[in-house]
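Tokens for chain A. Residues wanted.
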């Protein structure tokens, strides 16, 4: 049956989203250094709910102070942070959107200036001056992810996305290039994926059957292998997680690894038997045409990143205009502020090539 972008979708856990648009998780450096939600972060996200997103995902939110990856990062590592999250989820709900928080630990990628002590990883990493966790600490890390999910539920979120992508700690376990352990959390793929699977099982057990659980994975870079990630997907589908979020960065790209270049990167995941799990992808989805062609493949809902920075109402625009194309960049600071970005987010976006016009002197 043809998928329509304005159709509601139902997750395996029973929760429904009003349409097929999700705001992709986007770090915006707008919160307080102690992890509390700021007014700017609230405004940025609530404006996306107002703009028609059926699902609003937060930025990567750290589950432990030692896993902080960015200045001004939103945190979910302490009960003291719950009131801010409660405000956010209540506001998002007012517009009929679901709210999902991305659970994150940067591992060896935590800048030393942001954490106490040294960054941690699956194994020692000289280049990052990071130390490998012992078995007891791995159990604690698992517990920290699960505790953050329990806190998320108490904060009113409809679900969580476990951040297993982009070279952060769970990728550092999945990766055969980074993980050199010789115990049950290292070595073969089954062992390297044990931690992320145990986290998902623990969240389901503690947060119950009606809570959305998604997992984000990178199919390449950081030592990821497409076939290995396909196997991890199958394990997650077997557990009936609600959605898989494959981070492609460009939905039209070919794989970088020469052995996989006979088909598009996306097709490796649209060909997976998804059973009850829904599939979403992100990466340069700029127009109504882009959205509709993904739905014609096996993608169930789309995740919009930079398009949603440029247009808080990207979903409304796509649903009302089949010819809609996102604004070209660079754009002015004033334009981004009108779209609900605070000063810190504008400054962060200056680091992205050709996104913000240089300040006139
Ligand atoms: C400013 C910015 C911040 C991002 N922060 C995160 C993040 O916190 N977690 C994450 O998984 N991906 C993050 N990403 C990746 C996006 O979620 C998305 O996958 C990527 O930007 C590709 O989609 P797009 O082409 O629509 O922007 C970020 C991207 C941008 C542009």
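Reply:
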């Amino acid at each position: 049956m043809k998928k329509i972008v304005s159709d509601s979708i139902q997750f395996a856990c029973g929760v429904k989203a009003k349409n097929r648009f999700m705001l992709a998780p986007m770090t915006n450096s707008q919160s307080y250094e102690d992890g509390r939600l700021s007014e700017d972060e609230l405004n940025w996200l609530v404006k996306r709910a107002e703009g028609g997103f059926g699902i609003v995902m937060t930025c990567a939110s750290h589950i432990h102070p030692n896993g902080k990856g960015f200045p001004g990062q939103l945190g979910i590592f302490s009960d003291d942070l719950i009131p801010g999250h409660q405000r956010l989820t209540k506001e998002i709900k007012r517009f009929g959107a679901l709210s999902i928080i991305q659970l994150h630990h940067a591992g060896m990628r935590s800048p030393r200036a942001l954490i106490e002590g040294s960054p941690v990883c699956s194994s020692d990493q000289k280049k990052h001056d990071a130390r490998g966790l012992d078995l007891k600490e791995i159990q604690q890390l698992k517990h920290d992810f699960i505790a953050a999910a329990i806190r998320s539920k108490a904060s009113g979120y409809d679900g969580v996305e476990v951040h297993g992508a982009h070279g952060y700690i769970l990728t550092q376990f999945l990766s055969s290039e980074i993980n050199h352990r010789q115990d049950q959390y290292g070595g073969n793929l089954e062992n390297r994926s044990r931690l992320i699977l145990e986290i998902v099982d623990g969240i389901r057990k503690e947060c119950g059957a009606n809570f959305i659980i998604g997992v984000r994975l990178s199919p390449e870079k950081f030592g990821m292998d497409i076939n290995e990630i396909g196997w991890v997907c199958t394990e997650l589908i077997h557990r009936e997680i609600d959605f898989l979020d494959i981070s492609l960065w460009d939905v039209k790209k070919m794989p970088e690894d020469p052995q996989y270049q006979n088909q598009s990167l996306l097709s490796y995941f649209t060909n997976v038997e998804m059973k009850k799990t829904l599939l979403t992808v992100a990466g340069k989805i700029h127009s109504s045409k882009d959205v509709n062609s993904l739905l014609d493949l096996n993608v169930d809902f789309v995740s919009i990143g930079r398009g949603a920075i440029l247009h808080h109402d990207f979903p409304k625009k796509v649903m009302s205009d089949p010819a809609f194309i996102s604004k070209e960049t660079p754009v002015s600071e004033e334009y981004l502020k009108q779209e609900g970005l605070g000063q810190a987010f504008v400054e962060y976006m200056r680091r992205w090539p050709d996104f913000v016009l240089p300040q006139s002197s």
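The mean pLDDT is 97. Residues 24-27, 59-60, 102, 163, 165-166, 216, 247, 249, 282-285, 304-307, 352 surround flavin mononucleotide (CB under 6 Å).
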